């Protein structure tokens, strides 16, 4: 009997969603991306990102600390490209300077800019959320929480490796790739 591959899907997957890496999802080589745990060509993934953001009912873009703080000369240009992408698909911008899970549970009506990603997504009724500028070691946990607790389609743009806990993830993201997604969104919207 052939073994069936694990497929990352929109949740909620349960209280403790299984770790994608343990289920056999591996990070792709340069020029490729992850879609639902499967390795796909990067260009296909960029088109899918644009389609998901352009057709979302309530999209959000969540810039993390690697995009919020001016720690490198390339950050301002990348941040401007991310803002233009968010504007093209009319996405909310929800900065997440700290996206580690908070305990005990927070009340998003009281706390300003709650940083618990799954609660923020649930509270704002976000159906597609793009994360960019996140540290890989925290991104995996945050995205796993989202997959387990919400019905949000997650996208992760990473400077280095693809993030296996996102439903769709592209690696080695630079300004050019972000601008490419923006142009594709505009074509879909028009």
What does this entry show, briefly?
The chain has 190 residues and is of the alpha/beta class.
Task: List key phrases describing it.
190 residues, alpha/beta, Rossmann fold, seven-stranded mixed beta sheet, 36% helix, 15% strand, globular
Explain what this protein looks like in three dimensions.
- This protein is 36% helix and 15% strand.
- It has 6 helices and 7 strands, in the order ββαβααβαβαββα.
- With 190 residues, it is an alpha/beta fold.
- Helix 5 (136-149) links the parallel strand 5 and strand 6.
- Helix 1 crosses helix 6, helix 3 (75-88) packs parallel to helix 6 (175-189) and helix 4 crosses helix 5.
- The radius of gyration is 16 Å and the shape is globular.
- It has a 7-stranded mixed beta sheet with strand order 2-1-7-6-5-3-4, sandwiched between helices.
- The longest helix has 15 residues, at 175-189.
- The protein has one domain: Phosphopantoate/pantothenate synthetase (Rossmann fold), CATH 3.40.50.12640.
- 42% of the residues are buried.
């Amino acid at each position: 009997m052939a073994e069936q591959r694990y497929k990352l899907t929109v949740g909620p997957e349960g209280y403790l969603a299984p770790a994608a890496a343990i289920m056999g999802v591996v990070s792709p080589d340069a020029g490729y991306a992850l879609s639902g745990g499967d390795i796909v060509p990067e260009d296909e993934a960029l088109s899918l990102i644009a389609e998901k953001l352009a057709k979302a009912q309530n999209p959000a873009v969540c810039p993390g600390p690697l995009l919020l703080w001016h720690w490198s000369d390339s950050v301002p240009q990348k941040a401007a490209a991310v803002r233009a992408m968010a504007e093209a698909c009319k996405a909310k911008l929800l900065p997440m300077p700290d996206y580690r899970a908070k305990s005990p549970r927070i009340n998003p009506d009281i706390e300003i800019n709650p940083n618990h990603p799954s609660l923020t997504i649930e509270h704002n009724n976000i159906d597609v959320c793009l994360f960019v500028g996140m540290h890989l070691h925290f991104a995996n946990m945050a995205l796993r929480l989202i997959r387990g607790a919400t019905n949000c389609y997650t996208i992760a743009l990473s400077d280095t490796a693809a993030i296996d806990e996102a439903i769709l993830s592209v690696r080695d993201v630079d300004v050019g790739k972000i601008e490419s997604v923006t142009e594709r969104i505009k074509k879909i919207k028009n």
